[in-house]
Amino acid sequence: MNLKRIEVIGDDEAEIGEATKRMSENYDFVVTSGGIGPTHDDITYESIAKAFKLPLKLHEETLQRMKTLSKPHPSQKNFSWDVPSPALDAKLRMVRLPIDDSRDEESQVLWVDENHWVPIMVVNGNIHILPGIPRLFVQLLDKLKPVLIPRLENPEGEGVYRVLFSTPMAESEVAGYLAQLATKVEPKGIKVGSYPRWGRKRNSVTLVGRDKEYLESLVPEVEKGVDGIRVEKEEDADESSDEEKET
User: Which of 37, 38, 194, 229 is the most exposed place for a label (fewest CB within 10 A)?
Assistant: First the structure.
């Protein structure tokens, strides 16, 4: 899967709506993260609903799952699901979902983890709304794989090869060479990548493409261009770098 775009958007209804509509039109798989909590600035559901002219509906199954799987905070000892309160209103914000009556509800509200009450909401067939809590975001996105993989043309990555290089040079030092290399190889379907490794003495450079023979032919040139070596794993050259420092 090729990552095409990342955007960071503030708690602004118009900006959220514009970005999700634009990305839904331009890309086949869109993920949003955050803004679906109980406070006033959690406006992802309502912003996307407004952008796509959808109603926000209290989703009974989500509410029942919330009641079953969540526990009141220790500060809410007197909380009751049956007694109106600001805390109840806040919780209900999280189960008012943008539902499109023209689509099958099962394709819009995805339960991918039975241990969590939070669903993945799907709007316009390709916008997937996830929570912003990093641990929960990763868990739900990982469990979305069975839904996502059948949509991929090449889910196993067959016929795609990667060559990894380790370099002691700073990214800024090799940037000029990599730009020239990319211009040369991208017409042949080869992608050039550069990745800093924070806290390490060496950085990584990658070549990815389908023409294995051509990739292999580039190895000596790239090793020379980045003053590096080909490795199987990023950390493979770290030990030799440490040994060089000791000597």
Answer: 38
Site of tokens 């990305």: 23
User: Rounded to whole angstroms, how far apart are CA atoms 241 and 132?
Assistant: 38
Q: Which of 111, 96, 6, 7 is nearest to 54 (CA)?
A: 96
Q: Half-sphere exposure (CA, 13 Å, Cβ side) for 31?
A: 16
pLDDT tens profile 3-44: 889 999 999 999 999 999 999 999 999 999 999 999 999 999
- Give the number of other Cβ atoms within 10 Å of residue 16's Cβ: 22
pLDDT tens for each residue of 227-246: 999 999 888 877 655 444 43
**SS3 annotation, the chain:** CCCCCCCCCCCCHHHHHHHHHHHHHHCCCEEEECCCCCCCCCCHHHHHHHHCCCCEEECHHHHHHHHHHCCCCCCCCCCCCCCCCHHHHHHHHCCEEECCCCCCHHHCEECCCCCCCCCEEEECCCEEEECCCHHHHHHHHHHCHHHHHHHCCCCCCCCCEEEEEEECCCHHHHHHHHHHHHHHHHHHCCEEEEECCCCCCCEEEEEEECCHHHHHHHHHHHHHHCCCEEECCHHHHHHHHHHHHHC
Taking the C-alpha atoms of residue 77 and residue 58, their distance in angstroms, rounded to an integer, is: 25
Whole-model pTM?
0.71
Which residues, 6 or more positions from 141, have their beta carbon under 8 angstroms from its beta carbon? 31, 130
